[in-house]
Amino acid sequence: MRLAETFTISRGSEDEVDVVQVELVHNGISGFGEAAPLGHYSESAESALTWLDGIELADDPFAFAEIEESLPPGQFAARAAIDHALHDLQGKLTGLPVYKLLGLRREGPPTSWTIWLGDPDDMARRTEKIASRGFKRLKLKLGGRDGLDVERVKAVRSVTDLPLQCDVNEAWSLDETLEYLPQVDLQYCEQPLVAGDPDGPELKRRSPVPIYVDEDCHVLTDIPLCAERAHGINIKLAKSGGIREAIRMVNAARALGLGVMLGCMVESGLGIAPGAHIASLMDHVDLDGNLLLADDPWRGVEFRDGVQLPSDAPGLGVARA
């Protein structure tokens, strides 16, 4: 899928993305799921498809525990696509949207819009361009490694009053983080340090704003260590393996007093819909992946008043455009 504009973070730029999509058929009814394999974690569309080729699922689409236990390890995006397709199928079989199937509220917090990494003036200009689109908060991609990150935040702040968040994608040191954060107006800072950096606990103790971790946090078993080094976690379904693991992670994070945000990759509406259905569990939401595409091939997630609202139709509630 092609992006509307080149998307840049501290690790590089991209103009198109590969996603893996799954269709499960039961009694003539199809459930669909999607997730984006993460090259940063040695996953690709090819490795996901190879993994999926070896899967045989139980005949009962409601036998989630049995199905989970039968899956081989690894390939979390492919695992998430199966999880999402199963939820879609269950919803269609019961006539319920996924959020009702899970007993959740329909509406979650507003999604942030990502202002990708560029020079300060460029980021400010792009902020002005989206001012009329209805977003309630902005997420700035930082980590330019050029000493201009404080200027980037200040440039964006000069053209908007919206709440600002930032994602550094592992590009700062402890000293840089403690130098930059007191100078800027941010709700939180996401993953300033390299995953596993031993300075993480020290940063949590000294940071003037909440620290959220993304690259440090993949699945449920990562949560205790994240609690030592951060104030909150960023859950991405393509990274955790789907809705069921994400809900387990939310519960564990809450038990340890952590904030919870829901992120995404660049995905179509089929990949964003599962997140929209569980967004009410979160403190912060970053579900703009389908809004970054030149053309979204799956429709059904509604962007309304800054919120990515899931469909009220059965299952994930999305259909091919």
Structure in words:
The chain has 321 residues and is an alpha/beta fold. It contains 12 helices and 16 strands. The chain has helices spanning 45-53, 64-70, 76-94, 98-101, 120-129, 149-157, 174-180, 200-206, 223-229, 237-240, 243-255, 269-278, and strands spanning 2-9, 12-16, 20-26, 29-35, 112-115, 137-141, 164-167, 189-190, 211-213, 232-235, 259-262, 284-285, 298-299, 302-304, 307-309, 319-320. It has an 8-stranded parallel β-sheet. α9 (223-229) links the parallel β9 and β10 (232-235). α1 (45-53) packs across α3 and α5 packs parallel to α6 (149-157). The longest helix is centred in the N-terminal third of the chain and has 19 residues, at 76-94. It is globular, with a radius of gyration of 19 Å. The relative contact order is 0.16.
Q: Going across the biggest sheet, name each strand in turn.
A: 5-6-7-8-9-10-11-12
Arithmetic mean of pLDDT: 97
* Alpha-carbon Rg, integer: 19 Å
Strand percentage: 15-25%
The share of residues in helices is 25-40%
Q: Sheet with the most strands?
A: 8 strands, parallel
Oligomer: single chain
